[in-house]
Specification:
The chain has 155 residues and is mainly α. Strands 1-2 form a two-stranded antiparallel ribbon. A hairpin with a 2-residue loop joins strand 1 and strand 2. Helix 1 runs antiparallel to helix 4, helix 2 runs antiparallel to helix 3 and helix 3 packs antiparallel against helix 4.
């Protein structure tokens, strides 16, 4: 399926999906960095506590953005969708935190600039994972869900 943005220029649906994911993700990254820096450099929290709390707050704000903006055309909110979002987001937080730990403690990149660079890299890598699982399992299209349910009922 394609969408026309301008006359004669079709854009694949996945490109629009990536753009919307980027808008919501970008707001989550902003929340993540603001809270992280406030906690770590402003309030002098431990680095791992600051990164986990910041990631969890960003995850909560992202759910709202994904549900009502990026994937609003997908299946309606269900307990399963919410559970999958928070399970996969939790895995994303673990990935992000593990990568942050490796850079901050393992490589000794603990200064204000270095910690933000490590945080940025960990967010980027964890976001790639999140994009794939959100579009595949959490915010499925109604057609994809129907096909999976039909396959499951044949077994």
């Amino acid at each position: 399926m394609t969408v026309q943005l301008t006359v004669g220029r079709p854009v694949p649906q996945v490109v629009l999906e990536v753009v919307k994911f980027g808008v919501v993700g970008g707001s989550g990254v902003l929340v993540n960095f603001l809270v992280f820096n406030l906690l770590l450099h402003g309030l002098r929290w431990q680095a791992m506590a600051a990164t986990v709390v910041a990631s969890c707050l960003a995850m909560a704000t992202n759910y709202v953005g994904f549900r009502f903006f990026a994937y609003r055309d997908r299946a309606s909110r269900t307990r399963q969708q919410i559970a999958l979002f928070f399970v996969f987001s939790g895995v994303g937080v673990v990935l992000e935190s593990g990568l942050f730990y490796a850079g901050y403690h393992g490589l000794g990149l603990a200064g204000p600039l270095e910690s933000n660079i490590v945080k940025a890299l960990s967010i980027v890598l964890a976001s790639a994972f999140r994009f794939l699982v959100y579009r595949t399992w959490v915010f499925q299209t109604d057609a994809s869900r129907a096909v999976r349910q039909r396959r499951g009922s044949r077994s």
